[in-house]
Task: structure prediction
Amino acid sequence: MSRAFLIVLDSVGCGGAPDAEAFGDLGANTLAHIAQVCADGRADVERSGALSVNLLDELGLGAAIRLASADETPGLIAEPQGLWGAATEVSNGKDTPSGHWELAGVPVPWDWHFFPQKESFSEELIAKVCEIAKVDGILGNEAASGTEIIARLGEEHIKTGNPICYTSSDSVFQIAAHEDSFGLQRLLHLCETIAPLLHEMKVGRVIARPFTGTNAHYFRRTTNRRDYAVAPPAPTLLDWVHDAGRKTYAIGKIGDIFSGRGISNSRKGNDAELLNHLLEVIESAEDGSFTFANFVEFDSLYGHRRDVAGYAKHLEWFNIKLSEIVSRMKPDDLLLITADHGNDPTWHGTDHTRERVPVLGVGVGQKPVGLVAFSDVSASIAAHLGIPNKGPGKSFL
Result:
């Protein structure tokens, strides 16, 4: 039996979402704007020149961007040799759960709850956090960049013991705390215990953000982040494969996003570690299995921080590693590469951007698929694996 691999490059959007204006994102285009800035020589930090992603472009990356948005893609002009197209989301959000669930065949049937930018949290929610954490108050209570708020409030947190609570433009409740002075297990217990209350409010995720260091200059978030996400409202592609008696592998934060449902084996780490996990799974995964991987650092380290050069460098890193991924695939394997939303590092603010996403594939030859739906990705993987498609999508294979 054939195997299937789905890689989500977190936030690697390609513009052109038909409803972008409703989200304040009309004109945002993560990939096109990175390519344009690089071509102009304005992203020459630890890299230089035009965006160099030849393997991704040969699959159809540049063509997918132009299809999605008609924006210019300097340096990305290859004639596509793989499966290529662009996908449009229908869920009313531009966040991680919405994008991943819909890619897995389950569009979000509700509107998420979003917190105000200032004085974000109710007295009742703050009181519950204090009760669970056994503290007399919280710090933050606002929308903020995680690295910025830790640098600003981290020393006060260490002194008082009060956790740093913040949100963003996404439907999230985040708690940052020092791994040593507050305690990692205490932070995880706090987030896990408060999560059901937030989920009832239709807040998508409670995120534990542990950090280390002795002062603002040395504070660093660690890889012990944990996401406590609302469970998908219906069985997803992972469940379909698992229920068919096949093995499923989750790499990165997939296990958190899907609340562990339908997952046989889960592996975490930073992107370099996740790449090694993926290579190991490609070598060893059983026939008929499905592997779902998320590489988060495009989003977490570069998109939110509006770091164009860093984002470009990470794209170039993945492009190099792609050759190793493809070289380990079996002849009947299917590999699809896509994204869950955008996070244009040239855009205003620090949050996700509503965009279409590229869909690139290896294993079916040259195949333009045009503009497709997010849920068509899961339908196509189900068709490849020979299992029933239980979602609204249609296969493009």
Q: What stands out?
A: The two ends are 17 Å apart (CA to CA).
